[in-house]
Amino acid sequence: MWLTLFILDVLIMLLCWLVSVYNQRAGIVDVAWSLSIACNIILGFYLFDHAPYIVQLLIGIGSSLWFLRLSWHLLRRYLKEKHEDQRYASMRQAMGNWQSVGFLLFFMFQAVLAFLFSLPMLLLLEVPESLWNTWTVPVTLCAACLMFMALIGETIADQQLYHFKQDPKHHGQTMNQGLWRYSRHPNYFFEWLHWFTYPILASACGLWILWIYPVLMWLFLYYLTGIPFSERQAIRHRGQNYRDYQQRTSMFIPWKPKQ
Hints:
Elements: H1 2-23, H2 28-47, H3 53-80, H4 86-95, H5 99-116, H6 119-126, H7 136-166, H8 186-194, H9 197-202, H10 212-224, H11 227-238, H12 240-248
Helix pairs in contact: 1-2, 1-5, 2-3, 2-5, 3-7, 7-8, 8-10
C-alpha cells in the first residue's frame, strides 16, 4: 500500500517534469507537490480505514479539500504567468547544460517530500479505533476548527494577493491590504497553522512524533524555501517600496502594523 502511494507520487512528478521539459517552466512542480499529497490522502481514505469515523471524515474531507484547493490555486497562478518563476529560472541558469537531468532529480526529490508530508494523515488513518482514547471526539472537533480557520485564512490571503496582482495599476507596488496589512506572509502563516491539526489529532492516539511536522514546516517556510526567497525577490523588484513595508509589517505572525 505504502509503496503504491509513493510510486503514484513519482509518476505524477515524472509527468509534470516532462511538461516542464516541453515548456521550459519548472513551476509546475509546486502544483504536482500539492496534488500528490491530495491523491495520497484520497487513496489513503479508502485504503487505511481503521481510525474512528470522525477522524476519517476530517482527514478524508478536510485534508483532501485543503490540498485540492492549494493545487487549484497554484495551477491557476502557473497558467497565468507568462514567464518561469524566478526561483526555477535561477536554478535553470545554474544547471546550464545539465538542467534536464538536474530538474528530473529535483522533481524526484519533491516526490519524496510529498510522500513524507502525507505520512501524518496516512498514519492517523491507520491507527486502529481501539487505540484512540476517550478524548477523540472533542480533540477531533478542536482540530477541525483549527483546520477550518487555517483554510479560510489562507484562501482569503491567496485571493487577495491574486486579485491585487491581476490589476495592472499595481505593477511594482507591494500588496499591503487585507490580511497582508498585518503580515508580510499571511498565506505562509496559515499554511503553518494547518500543520498543527495532525499533532492535535495525534494527542488522542499517542502519535507524538507528528509534532515534528509543524516544526519542519516552520523551518521550510521561515528559513529555507519560503520567506527568505520571497523577501529577496520582493526587494529586487520593488526596492524601497518593499523595504518600507518590511519596516511597518510583521514578517510572519499577523500583528498590528507599526505607524
